[in-house]
Write a structure and sequence with these properties.
The complex is a heterodimer of chains A (about 350) and B (about 80).
Chain A: H1 5-23, E1 29-35, E2 45-52, E3 64-69, E4 72-75, E5 78-83, E6 86-91, E7 101-108, E8 112-121, H2 164-188, H3 191-222, H4 231-251, H5 256-280, H6 310-343
Antiparallel strand pairs in A: 1-2, 2-6, 3-4, 3-7, 5-6, 7-8
Chain B: H1 2-22, H2 30-35, H3 45-78
The chains are: A alpha+beta (about 350), B mainly alpha (about 80).
Amino acid sequence: MKRNWWKILCVALLFFTFFAGLLVPLAPGLIKATSSVQSTYSGPFTVKVTGYNTHFKDQNASLSAWLINDNQNNCTNAIRVVDNTHLELDFPPIAPLTNPVFGLTVYNDKDGRLVMNNAISTIDTTRGGIVPVCHPVVKNEEQDHWAIPFQFILYESLRNLFFHVPMWFTMIALLSWALWNNLKYLRGFDLKYDQKANAAVNVGLVFGVLGLITGSLWARVTWGAWWVDDVKLNGTAITMLAYLAYAVLRNAMDDEQKRARVSAIYSIFAYVMMIVLIGILPRLQGTDSLHPGNGGNPGFNKYDLDNSIRPVFYCGVLGWILLGFWIYSLRLRIHKLHEHTLES
Amino acid sequence: MKNIFQVRIVAFLALALFQSLTINAQPNNSMDEKLFEGLHGHASLNVVVAIIGIILLGLFITLFRLERKVSKLEKQINK
């Protein structure tokens, strides 16, 4: 039992990740806003709003809504609540100040401030600013319960963060372990380390393939294509090809010491290439990437990873890494037994 | 068997890379859109389920491959 504590930890962490990652509700947000007219200045108009996980009906008393144009607020004449997720807002005629695009904010005490940028636009050429300007009262900026952040377009698929991203962390952890063992092998030419490195690369590749397939599906849903021209995607694809070449190369050689030496040196190059392709290139200034946190930004700034999901994400990362090492240890033990039976 | 598995992955990656070099991501035709309609919007929870399914499937395949190795070992020991 003492030696298996980390496996229990792995199971506990993954349980937590699955439960929290799937059951914590998504934060309330606005999905759609449609205006009844194209010109907001020609007369009073109505904006139909669709929310998600919102409590419009329950929080009728504290409900308020306003349009934002160049930092000026224009409150509604009347709010008609259809149900908890549907609203109809009546506005007086408005001429925009400079920008013909309006943002929309809906507020209630439970859901907090729900903002939709670029909610509606107008074809008016008249400019004058919003009259009268109103000053709505906001008591809670955010929803009052633990929630997964609401992100436009991503919506519920943000939960993939706990499953798709840790695949890469696990792959990198296993490949780093492989590199460590390769270096150890090169110091004393002990085949034990070569065996460890080989098992780690093989299991790491499984997680890499899973990361690619899950990423591909997620990309199809949010970016619209199975494969997009993105530094991170191409970088990982090249890395995986390099490591697959490693696996094929090993099978091609019979002499054990020679095989171990060649693959150890090859693996060091492949690892350095991986760090450059996944770790450095996407972060360079001016690199355009669809992945968050790339092109000069640090990977985990406050916009990419909300504090509310940080614990779930880190537990997930650790849990998946431990699972990776669990499978690796099984593979290694089978290999050792195999060698043992060959000798006897 | 093992090599076929690897060759498939290589083919997938090579195709993906080639595709990214030749064409840009463009909205697919309407039929393809229909196919994925359910995954858009707030039904995007489906994609989470699909992704968890893929991960579990991948891990099960790994386990089966490990098991095959164990059975081979058992056969050798029993000989």
